[in-house]
Amino acid sequence: ISEDFSVCVCVSPEVPAISKTYSKSSESITVEFPNVTGATFYVVRAESKIGTFFSETRVMGSPGTIQGLQPYTEYEISIMSGNAGGRSQPSYPNDQKTVIVAPNLKTKSPTNSSIVVTWDPVDHAELYTFVIIQEGSTVPLNRNTTETLLELNNLQPGTNYTIKAQALDDMRRPGDDQTFSQITRPATPDVLDVQINQGKSTTLIYWGLVTGASNYTVLTSNNQTCKASSDSYCFIGPVECGQNQTLSVTAYNEAGPSEPSNPALYLTCGVEEYEPGNCSVMWDEVKMVDYYMVFVKGNDGNEKMCNTTETRCSFECTCGHSFISLVVPYNSAGGSPVFELVNYTTIPCCPDRINITLVSSETVEIEWSEVSGAELYEVTAEETNDIIHCNDTETICALSDLHCDTTYSIKVTPCSEIRGCNKTCKAHTQVTAPCAPEIINITQVNADTYRVHYSTPNKAGTAYTITASAPGTTQPYVCTSTESSCELTGLPCGTVFEVMGAAWSNDGGRSLPGYEEILETGPCCPQNVVVKQVTQAMTNVSWSHATGASSFITSLTSRRGEAKCHTVDNSCLMGCITCGTNYTISMEAISTIDHVSHFTGPCCPTNIKLYRKPDKLQLRVYWRSLGPHIYNHTVALTGQMANLKCEAAPGVRYCDVLESACGNVYTVLVAPVLPDGTKTDFCQERTYSGKDECLSIIMTGH
Fold this sequence. Notes:
Layout: E1 20-25, E2 28-32, E3 41-48, E4 54-59, E5 64-66, E6 74-83, E7 86-87, E8 94-97, E9 105-111, E10 114-119, E11 127-134, E12 141-145, E13 149-152, E14 160-168, E15 174-183, E16 191-197, E17 202-207, E18 215-220, E19 225-228, E20 233-236, E21 244-253, E22 256-257, E23 264-267, E24 271-275, E25 278-282, E26 291-298, E27 303-308, E28 312-316, E29 322-331, E30 334-335, E31 340-345, E32 354-360, E33 363-368, E34 376-381, E35 388-392, E36 396-399, E37 407-416, E38 420-421, E39 428-431, E40 439-446, E41 449-454, E42 463-469, E43 477-481, E44 485-488, E45 496-505, E46 509-510, E47 517-520, E48 529-535, E49 538-543, E50 552-558, E51 561-567, E52 571-575, E53 582-589, E54 592-599, E55 606-612, E56 618-624, E57 632-639, E58 643-648, E59 654-658, E60 665-673, E61 686-689, E62 698-701
Antiparallel strand pairs: 1-2, 2-5, 3-4, 3-6, 6-7, 6-8, 9-10, 10-13, 11-12, 11-14, 14-15, 16-17, 17-20, 18-19, 18-21, 21-22, 21-23, 24-25, 25-28, 26-27, 26-29, 29-30, 29-31, 32-33, 33-36, 34-35, 34-37, 37-38, 37-39, 40-41, 41-44, 42-43, 42-45, 45-46, 45-47, 48-49, 49-52, 50-51, 50-53, 53-54, ...
């Protein structure tokens, strides 16, 4: 038996080639390739360029996409063909990088015409691009930015906006996109009508609906509210008759509230007080009525009657009182039963006597008379943002911690539970004390005058007083000026003063004293200075006590030189001076200097010689003088057999004495005599002896 049979052998298909690779999302890469003969499927492979990531995805044809990749990461992409016989070798690889992720947006609508978009920075993003489309429109609004904030303005209120966002990398490849929706806040609704239902003591409020609003809230000035969702009206109740109130309507949606509507004024019912002291009773018109009789009675016993064909009756109403109004309709058949009975309390009265006292530089006390109808009092000051400083039943209040040199507008407002607060009371002004000046510096003008410079923190014309006080002084030293400095005069030397400033104004009184500054005047000069010559080259200078001085500097100055001494004592020995020279003595006690002219002591004679005169009976003593010839000179010859003396007038350079003995040895002393008769005691003696007995020759000395 023979049978024909065939055997099918399948082989793997050819290796495909990649045409193009690209990334449209941050976690995938797409490959395009031509189909190859014999392939029934294809395998896309992705290997990370860095690391060990490896992934394969089976696809049926081109294009093929591999998922599960990382954002902004480079991969090596290859493709293989396959059939029942197996898979081909991988294609030549392509390198491709995934795109970056989308920004995570946060959106809000701060106003009814704006949207603000924010997001965290996206890694590797160089630019952010947005497409915004208004609900009901097909026209896109494109925006680009490199920031992480986008503001959209001039939008429609209560309208949804679709926002599509993408981040672009450094090659301007768009990354993942995210789409968000944000609605703007609704527009402000308008109050259309306010109707009072006197029988039910309720108020019906109508408003216009606005686009995009999900609900509405009505708020009155006395904090009553009502709400509605899709309706354009709501009821407020119960209401108290005779109250002037305002109300506003606010629209809401998921973005937030709109701006409140403009306040609408309405009267709750019955009696209307147009201004303090003038009231009106109002009522609805009644059919078949010829006239109305109105009776008004106050709690003070006064009554008022009104006959009118109108639906209003005005009457004088005293502040702080209660009234009952009764309206009776009349026609030819007579009066009807009581039509309306309304209680009304007028606003509390304003205090007619207010006394404001400045009790300290930063505290004022307010006291006022008790008024009718007031259950408590509020005290405010306009300069403190009208914050209520006192809310009490007492008629006294203190405002503290105020600013200096400030005019405060203070208002006392009486309040009652029924009528609220009387906002018509006038304000009263009070000026606080001036601010204290700050001493900036103190400069010395002369020996006993100092100028004090200080700040001027108050308004022009404020006077500033500077006071200097010291222990032991009977009266302080004071100067006053409206400028920024003034002079303290006659200050004693060697004294430590406490200097303090204060300000004064006619309307605010005296300020607190400023901080003290210390002023130490210069030390006093010695009253007496005594100069005594010790030797030809030394002088002793002494002086009396000087208040405030801790040390002294004494200087002797002349054209021939200078000598100086610094000591804490009251005397100083000066050396290196020249005899017979006019010196100027300067004494400096810390910072105070006193100048005294002084002539130093006379010079001792030089070149002293002794002669025997021709008559053999007299000896002549001759000398020279270095200093000015203004001194007498005394001559003393002392020997074994005689003590001889003579005196020469100023300018004379010799002196003769009687002496008949020969061969004697003498000690000779020639010294100047000071003006007070004192002989100079620092000149040196010289000894002379004769060589030839009783001859007229010069004697030699040693």
